[in-house]
Design goal:
- With 388 residues, the protein is mainly β.
- The protein has a single domain (31-188, 197-387), classed as Porin (Beta Barrel), CATH 2.40.160.
- The protein has 3 helices and 16 strands.
- It has a 16-stranded antiparallel beta barrel.
- A hairpin with a 7-residue loop joins strand 11 (267-277) and strand 12 (285-299).
- 26% of the residues are buried.
């Protein structure tokens, strides 16, 4: 049975269960979702020619059921890039499957697979009809996960989370603390059960926030230990460093994030910063990731919204082993302008233009040489987002 058939079978079961429960007087299962269809035109960059394409960029299908007055269950399936298993397009993911206990606004407990709270956008990144972007700030654009290591920048899965609000007058303090698997997941069937952590470590993280009227501030952090580094052959890397491969096991990885958003009359400003460090304990190795975005928008009318947004992704790596010293810096800078129009509460039309500059600089310290590459390209996009 293909993955698509499995998902369709599960969906049918939920629908039939919902119908039967409604007839028996039990609370029904709520079925709803979002999808975004887009058309994008990319100008020439690197070795790729100019191109354009229609795409079902993302679809999320949700199932929700109130189990009692205080307990709620929730499931989220996500489909990316015109998903088709037979054509090997895109991806289908079980994004969430959790049960929540709500005592009051001060204390909530989620148990099960979930998207953890990190900065402002991580938890709501899949709500495409509520966001003005077609292409979201890069580390949140799940349709790009095939070629951008977005899971290195933000946590995408947790299994236990406590969160809530502590109100006092017009001021609110919010908090979230969570645990999940580390990123050392088994994806090789020959090594046993897939989708499970291969270590005894955890992802631990949280966010502390402050809200006053239309001002929202937050500080987020996560910590875990990684075995090796994605996109790098750590056996060869260990050899280059003159170390045993076991010394690259359990590398501490820390994310720090800061977010701010503010609304003033018809203006909206939001910004985030994320920094990731995974080089601690090995002086000859440096690996740092940084991401920043800022968006300023204005409601021209109640339905029409226009914005400008600037994004920066920086990747810094340094291999300082004797005789092979090299430092590499990659930067992607994106300037966006866009607009969205709400036809009604369920349909949002969008347009977006992005000018992208990609720089790569390699310093070969052992040869006192610098290699630079620069590329510029543009992306034109239109889309329709639907809540159903």
């Amino acid at each position: 049975m293909t993955r698509l058939n499995t998902v369709m079978s599960l969906s049918l079961i939920f629908i039939l269960t919902s119908a039967s429960l409604t007839q028996s007087g039990d609370s029904p299962i709520g079925i709803f979702g979002y999808f975004q269809n887009s058309f994008q035109h990319w100008t020439t960059f690197e070795d790729r020619k100019e191109q354009n394409s229609f795409s079902v960029q993302q679809l999320n299908l949700f199932f929700q059921k109130d189990l009692s007055r205080d307990w709620t269950a929730f499931i989220n399936f996500e489909f990316l890039n015109s998903f088709s298993s037979i054509r090997q397009w895109g991806a289908a993911n079980l994004e969430e499957a959790w049960v929540k206990y709500r005592a009051n606004e001060k204390f909530n407990l989620k148990l099960g697979l979930q998207i953890p709270i990190f900065n402002n956008l991580n938890e709501i990144k899949n709500r495409t009809p509520l966001l003005p972007y077609i292409v979201r700030p890069l580390v949140y654009e799940t349709s790009f996960s095939e070629f951008i290591i977005i899971e290195e920048f933000v946590p995408d899965r947790a299994f236990l989370q406590v969160y809530g609000f502590l109100p006092k007058g017009e001021t609110k303090c919010d908090y979230a603390f969570y645990l999940g698997n580390s990123s050392n997941m088994n994806d090789n069937r020959e090594k046993g059960q897939t989708g499970i952590d291969t270590t005894t470590t955890f992802l631990a993280g949280g966010r502390l926030g402050f809200r006053y009227r239309e001002l929202k501030l937050g500080l987020s952090a996560t910590h875990e230990k990684k075995n090796g580094i994605r996109t790098l052959d750590f056996i060869s890397l260990a050899d280059s460093l003159g170390r045993e491969p076991s010394e690259l096991m359990g590398l501490p990885k820390t994310r720090l994030g800061v977010d701010m958003s503010y609304k003033f009359t018809n203006f909206i400003f939001e910004s985030e910063f994320v920094t990731v460090n995974i080089d601690e304990g090995i002086p000859e190795l440096e690996l740092d990731l940084d991401f920043y975005y800022a968006t300023l928008g204005y409601h021209l009318t109640e339905q029409l919204f226009a914005y400008g947004s600037y994004w920066v992704v920086d990747v810094h790596s340094a291999l300082l082993a004797t005789g092979d010293e090299k430092v590499e810096d990659e930067a992607i800078q994106t300037l966006n302008i866009g607009a969205s129009y709400d036809l009604n509460d369920r349909i949002r039309f969008k347009g977006q233009f992005a000018r992208v500059k990609a720089d790569e600089e390699l310093h070969l310290l052992s040869h006192d040489d610098v290699i630079k590459e620069e590329d510029k390209f543009s992306v034109y996009a239109v889309a329709v987002s639907v809540f159903f």
